[in-house]
Fold this sequence. Notes:
Blueprint: H1 15-47, H2 61-73, H3 84-92, H4 97-100, H5 103-118, H6 126-139, H7 145-150, H8 153-169, H9 172-183, H10 189-208, H11 225-263, H12 265-282, H13 292-300, H14 307-326, H15 334-352, H16 357-373, H17 376-387, H18 393-410, H19 415-427
Helix pairs in contact: 1-5, 1-6, 1-8, 1-10, 1-13, 2-12, 3-6, 3-8, 3-19, 5-6, 6-8, 8-9, 8-10, 9-10, 9-17, 11-12, 11-14, 11-15, 11-16, 11-18, 11-19, 12-14, 13-15, 14-15, 15-16, 16-17, 16-18, 17-18
Amino acid sequence: xxxxxxxxxxxxxxxxxxxxxxxxxxxxxxxxxxxxxxxxxxxxxxxxxxxxxxxxxxxxxxxxxxxxxxxxxxxxxxxxxxxxxxxxxxxxxxxxxxxxxxxxxxxxxxxxxxxxxxxxxxxxxxxxxxxxxxxxxxxxxxxxxxxxxxxxxxxxxxxxxxxxxxxxxxxxxxxxxxxxxxxxxxxxxxxxxxxxxxxxxxxxxxxxxxxxxxxxxxxxxxxxxxxxxxxxxxxxxxxxxxxxxxxxxxxxxxxxxxxxxxxxxxxxxxxxxxxxxxxxxxxxxxxxxxxxxxxxxxxxxxxxxxxxxxxxxxxxxxxxxxxxxxxxxxxxxxxxxxxxxxxxxxxxxxxxxxxxxxxxxxxxxxxxxxxxxxxxxxxxxxxxxxxxxxxxxxxxxxxxxxxxxxxxxxxxxxxxxxxxxxxxxxxxxxxxxxxxxxxxxxx
Length: 443
């Protein structure tokens, strides 16, 4: 972390800031509504396609991947990348903000994500929704003058980014934690006080748009605290290993596929599209979508899949998002990471324990997310929100902590900050003459 920034002043009177902060949160939620609607439509479509005979729909990535890479190379080049690395870079290097946070990058990123999602690519949406919040702050800064006089711009950018996450997943507290734990990587009173009136209206608007409070309903887990803890330790270890593998593969693919996607977009896109089609074929279509419908389907079955099918689904959910994110297509890895952990947890308890596979899904989701992001508090709150039952808190908390520790020991750089470094290096190439001299990265 860069500690050279001046000491942040804490406003004494917060009431005058409440109205503009509430308005900002409402606008963030409003802009994210179409993204939520697209995500829910895709989930509804996939719900009727799993285990169905392969039709023309399964070939969608084959023509769409080359198209997306051609657009990223040409008219929509400013929308390249998830959206979170670009936001983090703007927090670290103020001179980037005018270039990276404009309305054109926002429009390009949302358009690319929309095409990718409607084509069933295995991408989450936290990258675009976090970027929505930061871009709106930059666009509205003339009208936020009073707020900016009392709060530093990096704080407001991080808060609005967290509000985007809250709007995308109807998770106000998770959005506030994400702003502190990942975007700014520090906790402070101004950050939390500013976050609360922004994330709440953003999440409320998402709720009005149909984003359920408990994404997977109330997962019916019946296990004592001690039973949870006995299961949480091995699931945390497995989640940490899978999360480190997943995040490491995303970083590796981004380094390798990024240059190929720029130099040979047509050939690279066809190859990636064919690989995604193959993964869909071996997994009964479960390689497609962000992964949330896979978990909904699995929970509806009582948490069980035939072991061979479960392994194929796990492989598809692990590799599919790597191919899409590695090519620089805007998206996110929260839902993919949750599905990796949930499928693995349910499979392991089904095979090696007498415990309910639903317990494995609940704890596995937390472990998979914490292992992928190395954000244990964030992952704990997110998993509890999805399960809708605080009774699983002991197991979820231990699984998240163990998974994050295992992942950090194997993958020193958290995935989004590793992607930020790769994006920074890309800006420093001759193809990007607008890049300024680099500052030391914040740690």
